[in-house]
Automatic annotation (TrEMBL):
Residues with the N6-(pyridoxal phosphate)lysine modification: 66
Cofactor(s) of this protein: pyridoxal 5'-phosphate
Annotated protein name in UniProt: Diaminopimelate decarboxylase
Residues holding substrate: 292, 329, 333, 361, 389
Positions that bind pyridoxal 5'-phosphate: 248, 289-292, 389
Record-linked InterPro entries: Ala_racemase/Decarboxylase_C, DAP_deCOOHase_LysA, De-COase2_N, Orn/DAP/Arg_de-COase, PLP-binding_barrel
Organism: Paenibacillus oralis
Active site positions: 360
Keyword annotations from UniProtKB, A to Z: Amino-acid biosynthesis, Decarboxylase, Lyase, Lysine biosynthesis, Pyridoxal phosphate
Amino acid sequence: MYLHGTSKINAKGHLEIGGCDTVELKQQFGTPLYIVDEALVRQRCREYMDAFRASGLSFQVAYASKAFCVMAMCRLAEEEGLSLDVVSEGELFTALQAGFPAQRIHFHGNNKTLDELEMAMSAGIGCFVADNFTELHMLQALAAEKGTKVNVLLRVTPGVEAHTHEYISTGQTDSKFGFDIGNGSASEAVELASRSLNLNLLGVHSHIGSQIFETEGFQLAVERVAAFAMQVKEKLNVVFKVVNLGGGFGIRYTEEDTPLKVADYVRAITDAVKEHFSDYPELPEIWVEPGRSIVGDAGTTLYTVGTSKDIPGVRKYVAVDGGMTDNPRPALYDSKYEAMLANRAHDENEETVSIAGKCCESGDMLIWDVELPKVNSGDLLAVACTGAYNYAMASNYNRIRRPAVVFAQDGHSDLVVKRESLQDLIACDVIPERISKQPSLK
Ligand SMILES: *Cc1c(COP(=O)(O)O)cnc(C)c1O
C-alpha cells in the first residue's frame, strides 16, 4: 500500500498516521475507524492557495464540502482560508454551525428547494450558483420579497467532459446540470440575470468532471468559457467578474492513477485564463472547487478482520467489520483501493485475497485481489485513500452504525465524529399507536 502524507511504518511494524499508532487508535476508538491525516489535508489546502497566489490572479479556493462534510473539516477549511461549497441545507447547516463565515459559502445544486434558498439567503451566503431557469426565477422572487440583491454565478455546460485520462468534447451536452452554451440557453440566462434588480450576476461556473489527470479538459473549458464571455460582452454588454472552473482534480488511489501536482493543475488553469481572457476588459477572478483532492488521500479506514472463506482454486474471501456501508464506492463505481495489514506491516505478502464487507449483498466488496501476509482473524486492515466520498456516502444499510472519524496529527488523535450508537439508529423511529408496543401474549 502506498503511504500517503505522514503515514509510515513504526518500529513495532505498525502503520502510523499523524504520529499515531493505528493499533492504539483501534484500542481507543474501535473499528471501523476513519483516520484523517490532518497535516496532509492542510498541506493540500496550502498547495492550492500558494499556487493561486503565485499566479497573481484574484481567486477563491472553495472546498467542495460534499466530499467530507463535518464540522471539524469546515473549521479546518476556514482556518486555511478556503471558501466552501454546499449543495444542501444539511451541508449549509453543518458549515454555519461550525461558524464558517456565510460570505464565503457558495450554494450549488440542480434542485435547491425554496426552503433551502430561503435558509441560505437569510444566512447571507456569498453566492448562489444558479443551475436552471426555475431556480433563477425563484431566486429573483425570493430576493425581491426580501428587498435584497444576491450574488449569482450561472452554471454553464461548456461542452467538455473529462474523466481521468480522456476528455470528451461534446457539442450539445446531455447533462442534468447547468445552462448549455451551445444551444443559447446560457446566453438567455445571462440576459435574464443581468437585467434583474435583485440578482447581482458575478459570472459563470463550469465543472467538467472528476478524478481528472490531465490539463487539456480544463484548458478547453477555459477557452470555451472565455469565448462565451466575449460573446455576451458584445451582445449584452455584460462583463463577468468571476469565472469558476469547478473541481475534479485527480488523486492516487492505486498505482494506475497518475495525478498531476496541485500546482500544475492550477498553473494550467491560470495560464489558460491569462491567454484566453487577454482581450477582456479585466482578467476575471478565478474560483476552483476541489473536493476529493483536499481530503481524499488523507483518509484511511481501519477495519478488524473477522471471518474468511477459502474456495480452493477460486478465491479466498476475507471479511472485515465494515464494507459498503462505510465505503460504497467499489460497489457503486468499481473503484479500486490499496490495503495493508496495519498491525503486521513488516510481514511478507503471502496470499492474494479479496476483502469483503459484512453486508447482506454479494456486491459488498471493498477490494478484489489484494496481496497480503497470511491474514488472521483479529488482524487490522488499513484501506488507504478513503478521505473523500466515504464517510460522506456512508449509510446505515443492515442497520450498521456509521464509524467514528478521528483527526490525527503530531501524535494527537481527536474524535471529530463519534461512532453512532445503537440508540442513534432508532432515534427517528416511531411505532404508530395502532401497532401494539408490547409483545403480544399468545
Ligand atoms: C463534485 C463537485 C466538485 C468537487 O469535485 P471533486 O472531484 O471532489 O474535486 C466541485 N464542484 C462541483 C460543482 C461538483 O459537483
